[in-house]
Amino acid sequence: MEIEITEEQELLREMSARFIESNCPLVAVREFMDDKRGITTDYLTQTAELGWYSLLVSEEYGGGQVSESGISDAAIVAEERGRLVQPGAFISSNLVALAISEFGSEDQRSSLLPDLMAGASIATWATADTSGNWDLGAGVTATRSENGVVLDGTKGLVQDAHIADSILVTANLNGSPIHLIVPAASSGVTVKPLESLDITRRFGRITFEQAEFPLELALGFPDDGIRLWERLTDVAAVLTVAESVGALSYLFDMVVEYSKDRWAFGRPIGSFQSIKHTLANTGLLLEMCRAMSAAATRAVAGNDDSASEVASMAKAFVGKNCIEASHECFQVFGGIGYTWEHDQHLYFRRLAVDAALFGEPAWHRERICKIHEL
Amino acid sequence: MISIDDFRTEARNWISQNLEPLEHSNTKILRGVDNLSAEDLPPERELQRKIYQAGYAGISWPAEYGGQGLTKQHEVVFVEESANYRMPDFGVLTGTTFLVCGNTMLAHASPDFLSRHIPRILAGDELVVQFFSEPSAGSDLAGLTTRATRDGDDWILNGSKTWSSGAACADWGMCLARTNWDVPKHRGLTWFAVPCNAPGLRIDPIKEINGDEEFCQEFFDDVRISDAERIGPVDGGWNITHSMLVFERGAGRVVSETAPAGPGELAPDLVALAQRLGRTSAPNVRQLIASAHIDDYARQQLAYRIAGQIRKNGANTGMAAYGKLATGTYDPIRAQIALEIGGAAALTWEKGDRDGIEPSIDYLNSRVMSIAGGSNEVQRNGISERVLDLPREPAFDLDKPFREVERGGPGTEWSGKTSG
Ligand SMILES: Cc1cc2nc3c(=O)[nH]c(=O)nc-3n(C[C@H](O)[C@H](O)[C@H](O)COP(=O)(O)OP(=O)(O)OC[C@H]3O[C@@H](n4cnc5c(N)ncnc54)[C@H](O)[C@@H]3O)c2cc1C
Predict the structure, then answer these.
(1) Are A364 and A237 a contacting pair, CB within 8 Å?
(2) How many whole angstroms separate alpha carbon B53 and alpha carbon B42?
(3) Which residues of B, range 222-281, sit inside 8 Å of A by Cβ?
(4) Which residues of chain A have a CB within 8 Å of the CB of B286?
(5) Which side of chain B, N or C, has fewer Cβ within a 10 Å radius?
């Protein structure tokens, strides 16, 4: 079948959807846009109660899945979050939790995971550089010092950098990767909040200047740096794709309804063939994106040999085509779509940013060529 | 009924002892280069007969008509087990005979008709071509004008069919004709089976853009056929057409229920092309290769998704139309990518160089699926009305007797009026 959804997963979906609809519908998303932090403590603790930040943490360390695979559980939540363009760094903080659970030290697990899973602290992954290069360790170099490593350089596109308590930073140590989880409030670390095309979420830039950290803060060091990075990249792709698919599904339903209700020239605009064909094409893209999202979730959740490749295929396909689809939807809304008031732009913005986050389509295509040793 | 596992074991044994292993399982057949002609057919028919006699033809078709009366799952097993063996190749007639016409007949023809035709179809004695399109009716199939007139126990057919793929090699044609001109267009159509050697029927091959002569035009000049060859009720042909179109869009295809395997090799044809030209490190070439590979996989995943939906919710022309539209959309993109990677080498080649000719032939053939069997536009109409439930467009031909429908032609001007 498509992708097997268990009863427990269906329950997780329903509960997440219900929470979002009653606590954070689009009007509330708009209120968050004006909020200084962009998200409230209540939102974080309530969604933590739904289990949102425990899904990628092994049960051994207090995490909890509702199915055999926390990744497919998290994809379900990501899709629901996408539907109503939810605030917060759900994906990024889950990636950090996953990194700690799978690659962290006992000390990191016990000191960081409980608060993360409870929504009491926020973690984020700093991986791309300021130009949006997602290559391993881009933008920040690490040098060995007597007491550990010293980081220098700047990371961009870091979600919720302004409120993060800990930062997972991926740096370049003489050509190999090193990942460290560092407190945001460390000396030599400066966070600069930025404005963004996506106004429903916050991004920032993090600069490291002679920032020295003990090696105990590293994960998967020295042997597993690449494996950890591949793993995070794959899971990031699965969750971002699921989120985009959720967003596009909602936007598409919205525009199909609009085309039935809006009249011109004595008929609903949805009866004009050009509009019908535009929507049929968009529907095809959505169906293909759904199929690719399911494929990537299956492959990564099942630890398939081709997991990285399928994750990248889905990320490239969905990134490119969701942008195209969102433009088609915008076009059908006409002038109303260009107003602040109308919700379509929240999706138009979100989908463009999702396409770039954790690797734009071209980056993932190149990754696929490398996987095949072309 | 034999269990799936036992059936698999038996099939595997029989196949390994009786069929020829394929040397290159993925040798690509190039439409326009590897033409099938009538002379190629006898050994294929013989192979089909062998499979039929062993009890592996029509696995899910009813036993009283020569099928095996087993389930679709059994059929999937046989397809899986025989994947690396040489199976009968009737070119386009494989799909028209078994997938489209055979399945449609089974759903709608009389028991007498079925006992005469289905066993012969399964034995490879009757290959069936689709006589649907006409010179003046393609997308608007229900606007066709080939007429069938009752004459006692017979019908007399006059008119012309066209674009019939494989007609020159076929034995029978499944033909839609107008039997009533005084009712709206969808209500006056009837299906018949017509022998290709019927007196008065002329079949002329048409030369295609790839140089091949695969499709044909037919001229019906007082072709007489018995009422016993009618499929379904008189004037009730349109319902049958609906289910026929569902089969044509792949509903009867036997697809494995397990998820497709991993993405496989990286677009092998494109990588080979780039390697021949030493272009594998050019960033734009790498992007194009990966894009094609991703789109190929996305189409496969879409097919899998659609098959799942059809299993869950029943056959649905709308969902199947998504699959058809994907093919019609991505085939041309795929072919353009090969031309772009190949550059001059894809545009010119030494005589006889198969590798050289492939991108050009693929390019020429790349719009087949965006036109044949319901164009992209027709799929989009179907999707928008049947899946998205968008309002219909104004119609000019639905509410009046077909006789009164404007049909164009030299010197005619369009009134632009939706009714009366
Ligand atoms: C390789 C090949 C093999 C074929 N094999 C067979 C076969 O075996 N048997 C058979 O019977 N037929 C066959 N066909 C015919 C095929 O089904 C028709 O060509 C097809 O249905 C389109 O009809 P047409 O060519 O008359 O184009 P038209 O219907 O004239 O269409 C011309 C253009 O107008 C568009 N158009 C028409 N109506 C609408 C509408 N309502 N809304 C929007 N756009 C519209 C079409 O999409 C197309 O772009 C084959 C065709 C090809 C190319």
Answers:
(1) yes
(2) 16
(3) 257, 259, 262-263, 265-266, 271, 280
(4) 365-366, 369, 374
(5) C
Domain architecture of chain A: domains with CATH: 7-117 (1.10.540.10), 123-219 (2.40.110.10), 225-373 (1.20.140.10)
Average pLDDT (B52-70) is: 97
Q: Is the model's pLDDT at B410 over the cut of 50?
A: yes
Contacts of A259 in chain B (CB under 8 A): 390
C-alpha span between A187 and B253 (Å, rounded): 65
pLDDT confidence of residue A1:
36
**Whether residue B385 lies in the annotated active site:** no
Long-range contacts of B272-275 (CB under 8 A, 24+ apart): B272/B355, B273/B338, B273/B341, B273/B342, B273/B345, B273/B346, B273/B355, B273/B359, B274/B341
Q: What is the per-residue pLDDT for A317?
A: 98
Residues A306, A312, A315: CA angle, nearest 5 degrees: 140
* Residue B293 CB contacts under 8 Å (≥ 6 apart), including other chains: A313, A368, B263, B266, B267, B270
- Judged against a pLDDT cut of 70, whether residue B329 lies above it is answered with yes
Q: Residue A3: what pLDDT?
A: 59
Helix, strand or coil, per DSSP, at residue B263: coil
Q: Which two tokens stand for residue B148?
A: 């069938």
- Write down the ipTM of this complex: 0.96
Return the closest-CA partner of residue B337 out of B265, B286, B371: B286
Q: Give me the DSSP letters along A267-304.
A: EEGGGSHHHHHHHHHHHHHHHHHHHHHHHHHHHHHTT-
Pocket of ligand 1 from Cβ distances under 6 Å: B 130, 132-133, 138-139, 163-165, 215, 368, 371-375, 377-378, 381
Q: Is B301 on the interface with A (CB under 8 A)?
A: yes
Contact B266 A362 (CB under 8 A): no
Strand partners, B358: none
The tens digit of pLDDT for each residue in A29-57 reads: 999 999 999 999 999 999 999 999 999 99
Q: Determine which of A157-161, B178-182, B315-319 has the lowest per-residue pLDDT on average.
A: B315-319
Complete domains list, chain B, with CATH: 7-126 (1.10.540.10), 131-240 (2.40.110.10), 255-386 (1.20.140.10)
- B330 in contact with A at a CB cutoff of 8 Å? no
Rounded mean pLDDT of chain B? 93
Question: Do residues B104 and B95 make contact, with C-beta atoms less than 8 angstroms apart?
Answer: no
Hey, is A179 helix, strand or coil?
A: strand
Backbone torsions φ then ψ of B124, nearest 5 degrees: 85, 10
